[in-house]
Amino acid sequence: METKTNWNHSTAAVCMKDGKVLLARHTYGGGKGKLIIPGGYLQENETPEDAVKREFMEEVGIEIRPLDVIGIRCNTKDWYIVFRAEPVSGEATPDYDEIDEVVWLDTNDALEREDVPFLTKAMIRAAISGKPGMPSVHYEGRFAPHALYSVE
Questions:
Q1: CA distance 13 to 40
Q2: Residue 144 pLDDT class (50, 70, 90 cuts)
Q3: Residue 144, in any domain of the structure
Q4: From 3, 93, 99, 118, which residue has the greatest number of CB atoms within 10 Å?
Q5: Contact at 8 Å (CB) between 70 and 122?
Q6: Are 88 and 64 contacting, i.e. CB atoms less than 8 angstroms apart?
């Protein structure tokens, strides 16, 4: 069965461990040659949380646990939800298709590098700010799958 990609809905995560952030160098598009937080587009009938977990496994070989929403970028064309996440298992390895390099960088180094774009730096700052994000809240919605993230 072929899955349909929703090119207007995307997600990413700032995954950190031991004061380092996981960044991936993209091989195409606007992020080509840049170190950015991993993520990607949602597939049909997929929540942002499920999509970011799938994208991390596909692109960088890491199983993650999304903790909370730390950023939302939206415009008249699309939306992008960013999670704070922690690694669960796996070894950071590029897929050599969309990603040609994966690195764990000290957060301060990542914030100084010219090959790390503004949006990635803003999300790293949000992740390390110590401010709470919006956690996932149990929700019995009418249309499944569903997800709710809210300040409690």
A1: 10
A2: confident
A3: no
A4: 99
A5: no
A6: yes
pLDDT tier at 87, thresholds 50, 70, 90: very high
Looking at the structure of the chain, the number of domains it has is 1
> What CATH code is carried by the domain that includes residue 67?
3.90.79.10
Phi then psi for residue 22, to 5 deg, are: -85, 120
Judge whether 135 lies within some domain: no
Reduced 3-state DSSP string for the chain: CCCCEEEEEEEEEEEEECCEEEEEEECCHHHECCEECCEEEEECCCCHHHHHHHHHHHHHCEEEEEEEEEEEEECCCCEEEEEEEEEEEECCCCCCCCEEEEEEEEHHHHHHCCCCCHHHHHHHHHHHCCCCCECECCCCCCCCCCCCECCC
Please give the model's pTM, rounded to 2 decimal places: 0.92
